[in-house]
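Hi V.,

You were right to ask for the full record rather than a summary. Here it is.
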Amino acid sequence: MMLMAKNPKKEYKKVISICSLLLPTAYCLLLTAYCLLPTAVHAERIKDIASFEGVRENKLIGYGLVVGLDGTGDKGTATMQGIANMLQRMGLTVKPNDIKAKNTATVIVTATLPPFPKPGMNIDAVISTIADAKSLQGGTLLLTPLKGPDGRVYALAQGSVSVGGFVGGGGGTTTQKNHTTVGKVPEGVTIEKEPPFVLGDGGEIKIFLSKPDFTTASEIVKKINDAMKSNYASTIDPSSVRLKIPPEFSGKVVELITSVEGIDVSVDIPAKVIINERTGTVVIGDKVKLSPVAIAHGNLTIEIKTDFKISQPPPFAPESAETVVVPQKEVTIREQKASLIEVSGVTLGEIVRALNSLGVTPRDLISILQALKSAGALKAELEII
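Predicted structure:
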């Protein structure tokens, strides 16, 4: 059995009025709850902003010979001496002056040892000429020992050189693609010895920040201690953090580093503007602020034009008269009209819109940013590279 209202229209209007009163209240509650939510913070993993002590690359260098070139090798006596020394080690005595070869080049071989290299691993080698060789195309690097800064041999390099280009032509007409005096031997370096290092020596590990910062170093310490529920981490300086090895990770340093390097840390980025005057590139950071200021910027153009007019002697002039070239210079100065424009900005978007309103080129923008920094309106570090 259904109960019908005496006046449905009145009941309907009453429900509508109640809903109209409740909707703004609900909207305000939702808006308040949204404002109370924690703001999103940009975080980076520790492995992306720092490195662990000893986990680093090492540079190697060596002197070698590239043979098999098609007449594009060295012509100097130093190369011939290198060939003679190599042949002497193989039991063949030859005088350097008796060697006439254009298919050999003296090169410097460089390579980079990755962290924790093991004997037998293969890495790439970079080959660079040091004499007057024109190309390393088609050459083969002979066995070359690669040494570290301590003078010890850590790897051996040998293999075919890849230059990724070519030189062709002749008779005064040549064509070249890419740089042919520098090449690479892919996986041509065999590691023979591992540099000495003990991970976690002294019961602690040091973490080095890529960019020193007091706030970021303190944040790393806080996050590590929160994750381990104890005060194992402490700051040494803005660029390094000391981490004591917990008892449960004794003999498990790799597991400790694995658990630490994945921790997210809020990175405090300084307010900075990067300017490259050579290319006209301007990069503005997110923390940059611009105080209210008025700017008037106009271009000044000075044009100097020189015309040459010939002054000839009149008819029946004496023989001593000569034709004279008279230069006439015309200087024109044009200055573009400009009006004052007020610019300011707290967020990156506001700064971009304010600077775009000026309608200037990147070169003009560089001058404006330098002037804003001198006036104290640009609240950021200005770095020119």
